[in-house]
């Protein structure tokens, strides 16, 4: 069962990475000191746009799998961020995927293990892909 949950999370991660390729845009350097506030505002705007793109990719992944969610989208994005924190905090644990899926199930009692596993995989692939390797226990 534990391997099944981890496999579901990893499958979701792989599907997401295959379906959505991320592209990073490089910002322009602006050495002019008179435009510092403009540059700062542009950087904040680009960061918000990057966050919005990640959120969109996350929901595309959920929708592609026919993931039926009742919660509001902001709540799901918040939970996805919590998934990353749980995985990061559980680095020393040998069953990070299982403990993370269990924590998601505790918050969403109507979800199945498969649904929670997919959510963990999609959240990890979208918001903290550098932690994906920790899902393998």
Can you tell me about this structure?
It is globular, with a radius of gyration of 17 Å. It has 137 residues and is mainly α. It starts with a helix and ends in a 10-residue tail after the last helix. It is 66% helix and 0% strand. The chain contains 5 helices and no strands.
What is the number of domains? 1
The whole-number mean of residue pLDDT values reads: 74
Large-scale geometry? globular
Termini, distance in Å? 13 Å
Q: What proportion strand?
A: under 5%
How many strand elements? 0
Features:
0% strand, mainly alpha, 137 residues
Question: Outline of this structure?
Answer:
The protein has 137 residues and is mainly alpha-helical. The chain is built from five helices and no strands.
Q: Which SSEs are present, and which pair or pack?
A:
Layout: H1 2-19, H2 36-64, H3 73-89, H4 96-107, H5 113-127
Helix pairs in contact: 1-5, 2-5, 3-4, 3-5, 4-5
């Amino acid at each position: 069962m534990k391997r099944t949950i981890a496999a579901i999370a990893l499958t979701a991660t792989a599907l997401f990475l295959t379906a959505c390729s991320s592209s990073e845009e490089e910002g322009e350097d602006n050495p002019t000191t008179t435009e510092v506030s403009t540059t700062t505002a542009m950087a904040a705007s680009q960061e918000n746009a990057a966050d919005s793109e990640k959120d969109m990719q996350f929901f595309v992944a959920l929708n592609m799998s026919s993931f039926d969610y009742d919660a509001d989208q902001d709540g799901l994005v918040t939970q996805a961020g919590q998934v990353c924190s749980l995985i990061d905090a559980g680095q020393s644990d040998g069953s990070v995927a299982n403990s993370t899926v269990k924590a998601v199930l505790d918050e969403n009692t109507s979800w199945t293990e498969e649904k929670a596993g997919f959510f963990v995989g999609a959240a990890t692939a979208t918001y903290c892909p550098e932690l994906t390797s920790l899902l393998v226990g």
